[in-house]
Amino acid sequence: MKLGKKGKAWAKARKRLKQEYLENGITSCEYCGSSWALSFHHRDRRSGGKAKHTFEATRLLCAKCHGRVHRGRDAVEFNEELKKLR
């Protein structure tokens, strides 16, 4: 699959973010502490076009916590808790 402009920008940013998270000692889910299936959560959805690929605008979450962000009754409450993490 060939990456477009946004995909290339995200691939480059992801590499930089991985290094930045390592330097800050964040190597597990910022919410529950799990190290299983980690990925970056953006405060603003990437598909919406407003997402920033910065340390301040992202959180490192496991698959379970990342899934809670976008679905379920507790999504709003969970997102508020994420904002308080750093």
Task: Write up this protein.
Strands 1-2 form a two-stranded antiparallel ribbon. Helix content is 42%, strand content 9%. The chain has a domain at 25-83. The chain has helices at residues 5-23, 63-70, 75-83; strands spanning 39-42, 58-61. It is mainly alpha-helical and 86 residues long.
The first-to-last residue Cα distance is 36 Å
Shape, principal axes of CA atoms: globular
Low-confidence stretches: none
Give the rounded overall mean pLDDT.
86
Give the strand order of the largest sheet, numbering strands 1, 2, ... along the chain: 1-2
Q: Could you give the order of the helices and strands?
A: HEEHH
Helix content: 40-55%
Quickly count the helices.
3
Question: What is the rounded Rg?
Answer: 13 Å
**Structural class label:** mainly alpha
Say how many strands there are: 2
Summary tags:
two-stranded antiparallel ribbon, 2 strands, mainly alpha, 86 residues
Summarize it.
By secondary structure, this protein is mainly alpha-helical. It has a domain at 25-83. Helix content is 42%, strand content 9%.
